[in-house]
Amino acid sequence: MKILIANDDSIFAEGIRTLASVIGKEHEVYICAPDRERSATGHSMSLNKPLMVSPLTKRVPWIENITDGCVTSGTPADCVKIALRQVFKDIKFDLVLSGINHGPNLGIDVLYSGTVSAAMEAMLMGYPSIATSLYSYSSKEFTPAAEWVRDFIKKEEHFRNLPKNTFLNINFPPVSREEYVADEVTVLGHRAYKENFEERVDPRGRSYYWLAGDPVEDKEVPGTDGYAVMNNKVSITPVTFDMTHYDYIENLKSII
């Protein structure tokens, strides 16, 4: 297959480099990734500034087993759009992968995630797509997850027959492949954060802030993506962009 891989952690991130190298052993892999970290950029796009695109050079170490790649100054959604519509426009891709993200994308994370948005952009453009994330900010061992993805896409029915406007969001526990308890189809959980702004002062005496927050993991319940990965399962969630509250439509009509 011909596969495009993007991410939000940048072209230098170990997650995308491991995924591309592993998948590239069996498929024709192309990469388009940001030149710097673009985490939590959501589905933002570069509309008011030029989008710079460069081929992989000596500044960016070549990734083993890939066919071609490029780096952009834009967001994850930019990467997917420019790759599919311009840079690799003559290639008929079979699948778009995003990740592997260094950190989970669970529950409401999907609203902010650049990793998820890259997969969503591909979906909106009519391509089967999968977002992949590792449930850890400290582990740098992406090989088990990459090998799982390699085996998962061998069965094209896993992604070829997705409903319209649907992509897969997959999260991996940070353990060895042998320690994966199971694969579980899940729903998005009710992931919440204890958030706070840490105030600091710069050398000129001006205040600035860092947003910090830890997830409240005890809110996860069986059947959710968070609960699955917390119990060493691979979480597979079908996601759609349609956020219409259909059950409330008739009630709203009666009010209006």
How would you describe what is shown here?
This protein has a single domain, classed as 3-Layer(aba) Sandwich (Stationary-phase Survival Protein Sure Homolog, Chain: A). Helices cover 25% and strands 28% of the residues. The protein has seven helices and eleven strands. The protein has helices at 14-23, 76-87, 114-124, 143-152, 157-160, 225-230, 246-255, and strands at 2-6, 28-34, 53-55, 68-72, 95-102, 129-134, 166-172, 182-185, 193-201, 207-215, 233-240. Strand 9 and strand 10 (207-215) form a beta hairpin. Helix 1 packs across helix 4 and helix 2 (76-87) packs parallel to helix 3 (114-124). The longest helix is centred in the first third of the chain and has 12 residues, at 76-87. It is globular, with a radius of gyration of 19 Å.
What's the quick description here?
It contains seven helices and eleven strands.
CATH top level assignment: Alpha Beta
Biggest sheet statistics = 9 strands, mixed
> How many domain regions?
1
Q: Tally the beta strands.
A: 11
How far apart lie the N and C ends? 51 Å
Question: Taking Cα atoms only, what radius of gyration do you get, to the nearest Å?
Answer: 19 Å
Q: Helix and strand succession?
A: EHEEEHEHEHHEEEEHEH
Summing up helix and strand content along with how strands pair, one would put the structural category as: alpha/beta
Gross CATH architecture: 3-Layer(aba) Sandwich
What form results from the Cα inertia axes?
A: globular
Helical element count?
A: 7
Enumerate the strands of the largest sheet in spatial order, edge to edge or round the barrel. 3-4-2-1-5-6-7-11-8
Low-pLDDT sequence parts = none
Helix residue percentage: 10-25%
Strand content: 25-35%
Q: Give the name of the CATH superfamily.
A: Survival protein SurE-like phosphatase/nucleotidase
CATH topology descriptor:
Stationary-phase Survival Protein Sure Homolog, Chain: A
Mean pLDDT: 92
